[in-house]
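Our preliminary data section would be incomplete without showing what the modeling component actually yields. Below, a chain of 292 amino acids is followed by its predicted structure, encoded as tokens that our downstream tools consume directly.
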Amino acid sequence: MSDCSFSILAHRGVIAVSGADRVEFLQGLISNDTTKVAPGHAVWAALLTPQGRFLNDMFVVADGETLLLETERERAAALARKLSIYKLRSQVKVEDRSATMEVAAVFGAGIDADRLSRDGLAVFVDPRLPELGARVLGPAGKVAAALSSLGCVERPLADYDALRLSLGVPDGSRDLVVEKALLLENGFDELNGVDWQKGCYMGQELTARTKYRALIRKRLFPVRVEGALPAPGTAILDGSEEVGEVRSGVDGRALAMLRLDAIGDGHTLTAGDARLVPERPAWMRLAEPANP
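Predicted structure:
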């Protein structure tokens, strides 16, 4: 494949959900429609608090009679325990496989997900944006060799992060504050992370109300950083007024949660010693802020 690069995502892990009720079980918990999951076709979704605040993000893909959840490695064990609590009488088994599996992102021009498929690998096109390429889940220590044998070149995580940041796409709790963030402030609607036609799931009421009452007053934006990259959590100022916060970043790019009324001409945004220039990605739809 021409211009095929990959990065091992060491910060991502895998949870397996198996059993006869696996699809219905997850359907009642997460923000996307698990009935649409199939081998090679994943959905991106979130688990929320009952109050509609972010807990975990995940890709869900079918691997035979098992659903694989690609999620944050450091928080995978806690997520597996939480899912096990919710299973009640459901015929499901939840297993954290992060110690035995690894995740790679494959990106570049001409990515062919079908050609990446090999025995023992779960491969799917990133359902958020085609520009993000594909994800590969496989046995720990085996994925890099499999991809290299196909002519793909391994790149550092910073290279993939630079692509992700330029597109304005969040990466779990690196960008979404756990138990505080709202999905629609962070692009989950436009990036195919919410299904509005599926049945009820935990946190659905607030998510729907946020959408239909236009309650969004801030959004996660990609920003160009002119100066030293501010640390995540650094306050963003418009003059002397605080209007947002820096999230993840690398090499002159970052994501920033910004008030919508601080975007546009006439605003000079700074964080620490750096100037930030917001960029609206092509996928982002903005509505006028609701009146207080």
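The mean pLDDT is 94. DSSP finds six helices and 16 strands in the chain. Preliminary results of this kind motivate Aim 1 of the renewal.
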